[in-house]
Each structure stands twice: as C-alpha cells, then as structure tokens.
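Example 9 (inverse folding). The structure is encoded as follows.
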C-alpha cells in the first residue's frame, strides 16, 4: 500500500509501518544497542560493527541515522542526560511544598538511587572517558545543564545581593565535586552506604550554600 507524505511524495508501508516509522524503529534499536554495549563493556566497545551486530542491522542503516560513531555516542549520552534531569525534576516536584534543603536532598537521593540501581547507565557519565574528546565535551555540557537547572530551581531562595554569576560558580564547584564524588563512590574508594553518601553530600551542600542561598530544613519535619 502506498501512502502520501506531508511533502506529497508517496511512501510505501510495510507491515503497517510507514518508511518514517521503520526508520525511527531502526534508530531506537541502534541507540538501545549502543547503550547496552556501553553499559556492559564501556564506551570504547561502542563501534559501528558491534552496534549493528547487536541491533541486527547493516551498516547502511547505521549511517542512515548517524554520521559516525561519535554521533551515536552523543545521542546515547544525551538520552541518559535527559533521563537524569527528569529524575531530578520529578524528585523536586514530589517535595514542592518542602524546604529548599529537602528538595535538594530528594534530588541527591534520586540520582544516588539511579547510580546504585543502574550502574551500567551511570558509567555513561561517571565512568572513564579518557581518549574521547567528544565524551569529555558531553560531560561538560551535562554539568552545565545541571547547573542551569539548579540556578532556576534556586532562584527564589537566593539571598539578597547575591550575584547570579557568583552563585553559578558555587553550583559549578558543587556539581563538579558531586560528579567526582560519585566516581569515587562507584569505585568503592568512598565507603558509604547510599544513605550515608547523601548525608555526607548534604553536609557539603550546607557549607557551600552559606552566604548564597537559603538552604534550611523544614521547621516541622526532619530532613530525612
């Protein structure tokens, strides 16, 4: 059966799927294969041949969707970034009526749970990217995205007279430090339970927040 696309050109359907739907399905399969390989063996294992073999597709379909291997790595990384930002937003929204400190704690709990429960995906950001300028650039972009998010979430709680650029610097130090701490926790060099890790991070956050933002616990309930 022939269909007509929005541009007026005919599209042939196959098993009830249009050409665009089949292409989207192949792209998802390639992304899933790339993520699985990265989680199981590290980013260096994500080659065009390995991804195609895992997805059951030929290299023709790889290059239909991605210019090269780096483009696939970035796409996989961006998908995990979006999931992680979604976790943070959901955690904060679930404590919308709580204090800013409790919201931050909830965000840290959500990310820590993600690292603990899905260590394969966690290594996409908290693993070793040595040798890949593309992945190091992506890591910096992810940190910038998280800084932007927390600037917006914290804006109502900034103390009078605090310059936003100074607060961005504070957040950059804090979030960059969290990434390195997460690497240490994943590797076992920081011997904390998940709850202890969050508690230690909150103690650091309290010190970083001094003079910049109101980060007080709820008056009528404990922090945890």
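The amino acid assigned to each position is listed next.
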């Amino acid at each position: 059966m022939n269909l007509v696309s929005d541009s007026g050109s005919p599209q042939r359907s196959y098993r009830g799927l249009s050409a665009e739907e089949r292409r989207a399905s192949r792209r998802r399969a390639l992304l899933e294969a790339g993520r699985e390989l990265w989680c199981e063996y590290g980013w260096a294992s994500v080659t065009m041949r390995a991804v195609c073999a895992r997805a059951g597709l030929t290299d023709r379909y790889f290059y239909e969707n991605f210019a090269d291997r780096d483009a696939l790595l970035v796409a996989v990384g961006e998908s995990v970034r979006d999931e992680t930002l979604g976790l943070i937003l959901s955690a904060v929204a679930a404590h919308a009526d709580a204090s800013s400190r409790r919201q931050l704690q909830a965000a840290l709990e959500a990310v820590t749970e993600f690292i603990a429960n899905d260590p394969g995906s966690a290594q996409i950001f908290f693993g070793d990217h040595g040798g890949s300028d593309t992945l190091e650039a992506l890591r910096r972009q992810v940190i910038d995205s998280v800084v932007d998010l927390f600037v917006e979430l914290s804006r109502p709680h900034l103390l009078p007279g605090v310059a936003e650029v100074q607060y961005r610097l504070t957040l950059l130090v804090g979030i960059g430090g969290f990434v390195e701490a997460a690497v240490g926790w994943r590797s076992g060099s920081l011997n904390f339970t998940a709850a202890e890790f969050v508690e230690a991070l909150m103690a650091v956050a309290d010190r970083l927040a001094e003079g910049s933002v109101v980060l007080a616990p709820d008056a009528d309930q404990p922090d945890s």
